[in-house]
Structures are given as structure tokens and as C-alpha cells.
Amino acid sequence: MLNLLNINNYHYHRGGADVVYLGHAALMECQGFNNAFFSMQHPKNLPTSWSGYFVDEIEFGHSYSLPQKLLMASKVIYSFEAQNKIRRLIKDFQPDVAHLHCIYHHLSPAILSVLKEAGIPTVMTAHDLKIACPAYKMLNSTGICERCNHGSVLNVIKHRCIRNSWTASVIVAIESSLHRYMDTYSKHLDRVIVPSQFYIEKLVEWGWSAEKLVYIPNYVNVNEFIPLYTPGSYFLYFGRLAPEKGVGTLIRAAALAKVPLKIVGIGPAELELKELAAQIGGEIEFLGYHSGTGLHDLVRGARAVVLPSEWFENAPMSLLESYALGKPIIGARIGGIPEMIVEEETGWTFESQNIEDLAACLEKVMTIKESIVVGMGKAGREYVEQTFSCQRYVSSMLTLYRELMISKD
Fold this sequence. Notes:
By secondary structure, the chain is α/β, with parallel strands linked by helices. The protein has 2 domains: 3-219 and 389-408, Rossmann fold (3-Layer(aba) Sandwich); 222-387, Rossmann fold, CATH 3.40.50.2000. The chain is built from 15 helices and 14 strands. β7, α8 and β8 (213-215) form a beta-alpha-beta unit. α2 packs parallel to α6 (166-182), α9 runs parallel beside α10 and α12 crosses α14. The longest helix is centred in the C-terminal third of the chain and has 19 residues, at 390-408. The radius of gyration is 22 Å and the shape is globular. The mean pLDDT is 93.
């Protein structure tokens, strides 16, 4: 049996990256791997015998004393605690491969040098753009931002890229400057797994060697999704209610097109979006948070699912899950979204942030023959079964692991 060390900031289902981290470990266990985990202490963590190695909790939204804040800031920049604890875990577990997901700000990139020194093949899944952009989204209050590509990391401070906070932006600017100078990521990572072709192109633009990057798309287990191809009478958005998700544009477009829209999710922009919907009218319904069977029922009841994003999305799981449930997609032409939509076969695309273009698309989809929508839903289900299957994901991962282990021998 081979030993796999799984590394991620959170050891519970907090967001998409955490779901992939835990799901990936479960898949590899089915392939005969022994799993160990390295993460951060947190009250919501799933039980694991490896929690004794986890680093102390850092949660920036909590109230801390000044000394505690200074200590946390130092750990964000370079965590000696994380280095010491992972060094102890490596000694006790003897991993054959290490697979990292999100490590910055909580575990810190400082652990990479320890893995390298131990001679452990190390890969990271790029769930976002942090290994290029200090703010990880290439987004701030001014919109899409790539100033740090050929410019100074001080742009992070100037434009308050981290939560629009001067203090947080200063800390991350120092962290990014240090690890750029040390070349921490590219020097110590053997490969970076990238779920979208767009992210590969973007990382290369920011100086990454294409040879370090491996395209392995996300997957869904279609056996867990029962499709319904009959078109519903409403459009659906489900996901986080944040400014970069483009939900405000979608609300305006739905009102312009005079089509019903259901919105599932919560987030920082929720109140603002509800006020917008009340002002402009239209059939806009906010349903709050749903998951599991309840969410699946809402997707199955839709005519199409809309992804109106206004930032560089990677490879949205919501898109794959909608396909698996038999629904076509209306997606913004930004980030990795358009490469996952076969135009007029599994869905439609529109210009990101363009209200009129999206409204026209919504009108079109609402009025076309139901048989066309049914056919596109079936095409989407077939597409996800063939291109984004669990079997393909596992095969690609095992091939990569084998190659890295052989090269280390």
C-alpha cells in the first residue's frame, strides 16, 4: 500500500476546494492508498486520528488581542509551527506522495520546503490563482486586476485587494513578496494540477512553466445525480451571493427579459441583491441556502441553470452538477466557463457583465421548443459522463503519481 498525505487549510466541507480535498482522499483510499491529513484545528473539523499534527486555528474574522494578531500575521507570512508539525507527521507517516490543495494564509507555503527536503513527490491542485496573484482571484474592488503580473506586489496594498482591508493587504503583500523572492511554489512543487485550460493559460502568462502544469478536470459521480430532462418554467442560479458572481447582472437581465428567476444561496451581497430585485421588479425569488436532495430538486425543476460570473472562474462544480441533473447551462464568457459549454449543444454563452446580451439569451431559451431544451439536457449529461467522469479523474491522478514516484527513485 502507498501512503498519501493530503494537505488543506480546512478539514471539513467549508467550500469547493475542501470538498475536492476530502473527496479526493476518499477516492484514493478506494484505490488502495493509506491516507494521512495535515490541516488546521477548527471546531467543525471532521474526526481524524491525524488532528494531533494540525496547526493552531487562525480565523481572521474572530476577535484577538494585539499579540495574537501579530503572531497570526507572522504565521501567514511564514509558519514555523506548520513546518515543525508537518516534519513530525512526515517522520511518523512516511508518505509516498503529498497532495496539496489550499495552504496559504493558514498553513503557509513554508511547508513546501520541508516536503522537498524529505524527497516527497509533491503536487498541488490550483483551485484558484494564488500561485500567481497575491489576492488569489485577480479581482479587487476595481474589477478584474492583473497589475502584479509585470508590476509591484505593492499594488495589493494600493488597491486594498484583500477584503478591501489595508491591514490584511499589507500582510499578504509581505507574504507574496517573500515567497516570490524565494520562488517557493515553483521551486518546491513537482507539478500543479489545473482543472481548466484557461487557468493553465493564465498561469503561463504569469510566468509559470507549462511543463509544471497538468490539466486534470474536475469530476462528478453521475450515479449520485438523477436527471430530469423536462424543461421547467424558471431559470436558476445557485451559489455564493458575492459581487463577483454577477447575480446583480442576472437579476437585471431576468427583469428585462420578463422571465422567472430563482436564486439559491447566501453571501455578503444578499441584502443588496434583494434590494435590487425589489427596486426593479420582475419574478425574482430568493430561496436561501439549499443542499443535497433539496438543491437537486430545484435544479431538476429549472429550464436552465445560469452562471453569470464576472471574475476568472476556474472549473465550476455547479456547472458539472447541473449537467449531471439533465439541465443545459447559460454561462458567461469568462474564465474557465466557456470551455465547459458546447455552444448550442449543451448550453449557451453570453458576454460577461452584458445585461442586454444575457437578457436576449434568457428570452431565447424560454421561447425555443421544449424538445431542443430536452436534447441539450441529454447532451450535457452525456458530456459530463464522458469528459468529466470519476474514472478519468482517478486514472489521470494515478498516472501522475506513478510518474513522480518513479522520477524520485
